[in-house]
Amino acid sequence: MTDAIHTSECAERMADVLRELATAAIDAALITPGGNLEYLTGYRGSITTERITCLVLAPGRPAVLLVPRLELPLVQEALAGDLEVTLVTWDDGQDSLDRLAALLPDNARRIAVDEQMWSERSSGVAERSPAATFVSASPILQRLRSSKSAAEIEALAEAGTAIDVVHRQIGDWLRAGRTEREVGRDVAAAILAAGHTTVEFVIVASGPNSASPHADLSDRVIREGEPIVVDIGGRMPSGYNSDCTRTYVVGEPSQEFQRLYSTLLQAQRLQCDQVRPGILAQELDAIGRSVIEEGGYGEYFVHRTGHGIGLETHEQPYVVAGSPVPLEVGAAFSIEPGIYLPGVGGARIEDIVVCQADGGRRLNQESRELRLL
Ligand code: ZN
Ligand code: ZN
User: Fold this and answer.
1) How far apart are CA 269 and CA 264, in angstroms?
2) Ligand 1 mean position, distance from CA 153 (Å)
3) Burial bucket for residue 320 (CB in 10 Å: 0-12, 13-18, 19+)
4) How far is ligand 2, taken at its centre, from the CA of residue 349, in Å?
């Protein structure tokens, strides 16, 4: 995370969670590695490692972070500087769940757990706290994380600018005769060169592969006249992520594809224009879907409109049919409708948009017109 976010916000965020826990009559929250831990402490940890790391937050008590002893240097380096967190280590050979259960307040009756806590661990803590009931920490954390501060929005804007640089240069790598994998390798290097610390994903989906929204890179050779969906993103030093899709054609696209694309462009533009505080996620989804349906492609828009973005590429709020969640000032999310004709090809246009008091602010600026290389 950037120092600005580190020092000014983590303590405030932790205080917000503690206040919400008290309001909800929850005695403790267990927060494990991932976006929630990073949001609260500046330390992300690893979601997949077998050694447990867990933040214990309990109203009226100091915050405690349980960490494996060998990872203590990592934690000390990443933790927000002036954050008041007591570090407690456990050693290989000790029962880490016993250590964790001992950090809970005596007589804790309601305990909130991180949605990404391994079930083996939450059930292990539950066995050691038979009197407690366990609830999800998500309602509290998701609500707080969905409303981005000015510093978070600037971090996302910086990420947007960095990924725009990569799309702007795409003609250097995307050419007929090269394979998706070759192009993907160059794009990944460019994502890092543009200032990201990690490459989170690279989709270069050509021809019929472009009809598969989450296509993997393949050894398929790119040919003239076919669409190529390029959906790329990475994490910045701030911890905040970029995610942007543009669709390209090497040479001349077919007339049918141009018609498909102009329908998609109209849908995406209308959705971005309609972002405003209070609009429901499902309403925003429906705006794009109805344009695509009117164009005759309704059955080929096979996914939601978008996802929230921040410390994780996909987080709340989701812009999806059936979601009655109103979009609020400070929400940051993608608007990425797509049309996919199986076996033929597809297109997607994706920008990150922030909901502001006066409407939507796009954080990606590269042209959304079909770009011919
Ligand atoms: Zn994307
Ligand atoms: Zn996305």
Assistant:
1) 9
2) 18
3) middle
4) 10
Q: How far is CA 343 from the centre of its chain?
A: 29
Q: Find out whether the peptide bond into 59 is cis, omega within 30 degrees of 0.
A: no
Helix (H) / strand (E) element for 287: namely helix 281-294
* Residue 182 Cα to ligand 2 middle (Å): 23
- Which ligand has its closest atom nearest to the C-alpha of 163? 1
Query: Using CA atoms in the order 153, 155, 157, 161, what is the torsion angle rounded to 10 degrees?
Result: 180
Residue entry with tokens 């929850």: 26
The C-alpha atoms of residue 162 and residue 369 are separated, in whole angstroms, by 20
d(CA 356, ligand 1 centre) in Å: 22
Distance 245 CA to ligand 2 centre (A): 8
pTM for the model stands at 0.95
Helical pair 138-146 and 3-23, crossing angle rounded to 10 deg? 140
Ligand 2 centre from 231 Cα, in Å?
A: 8
pLDDT digits (tens, 9 = 90+) for 313-360: 999 999 999 999 999 999 999 999 999 999 999 999 999 999 999 999
Q: Is 113 exposed, middle or buried (0-12, 13-18, 19+ CB in 10 A)?
A: buried
Question: How confident is the model over 224-264, as pLDDT tens digits?
Answer: 999 999 999 999 999 999 999 999 999 999 999 999 999 99
Position 76 pLDDT exceeds 60: yes
**Whole-number Å distance between alpha carbons of 63 and 70:** 21
Structure-block tokens of residue 18: 């503690």
What's the gap in Å between 336 CA and the centre of ligand 2? 7
- The rounded Å distance from CA 304 to ligand 2 centre is 10
Q: Tell me how far the alpha carbon of residue 373 lies from the centroid of ligand 2, in angstroms.
A: 23
Nearest to 126 by CA among 104, 150, 143: 104
Give, as residue ranges, everything with CB less than 5 Å from ion ligand 1.
231, 243, 245, 350
